Amino acid sequence: MDIGTFHGLWTLTLFISFLGVVWWAYGKSRKSRFEEDANLVFADEQPKPTKSEQGVTK
């Protein structure tokens, strides 16, 4: 086995791994979980009070 064959097999292995990650990340069964995880950063925020709740009158 020469170095060219090794490089070809390594490229094929990495490409198949890349396709596996893409399939996992964009699979329909994981969409709701990823959307929920994306909104976790906003979970601890308190809602901003409205003008009527602040007692501001004009």
Question: Main attributes?
Answer:
about 60 residues; mainly alpha
Kindly state the percentage of residues in helix: 55-70%
Which structural class best describes the helix and strand composition?
mainly alpha
> What ranges have pLDDT less than 50 throughout 5 or more consecutive residues?
none
How far the N terminus sits from the C terminus, by CA atoms, comes to 83 Å
The helix/strand order is HHH
Globally, the shape reads rod-shaped
The value of Rg in angstroms is 25 Å
How many E strands?
0
Mean pLDDT: 86
**Share in β-strands:** under 5%
Please give the largest β-sheet.
none
Q: What's the total helix number? A: 3
Report on this model:
The protein has 58 residues and is an all-alpha fold. It contains 3 helices and no strands. It has helices at 3-25, 31-38, 51-54. The longest helix is centred in the first third of the chain and has 23 residues, at 3-25.
Topology diagram in text:
Blueprint: H1 3-25, H2 31-38, H3 51-54
Short note summarizing the structure:
By secondary structure, this protein is mainly alpha-helical. The protein is about 60% helix and about 0% strand. The protein has 3 helices and no strands.
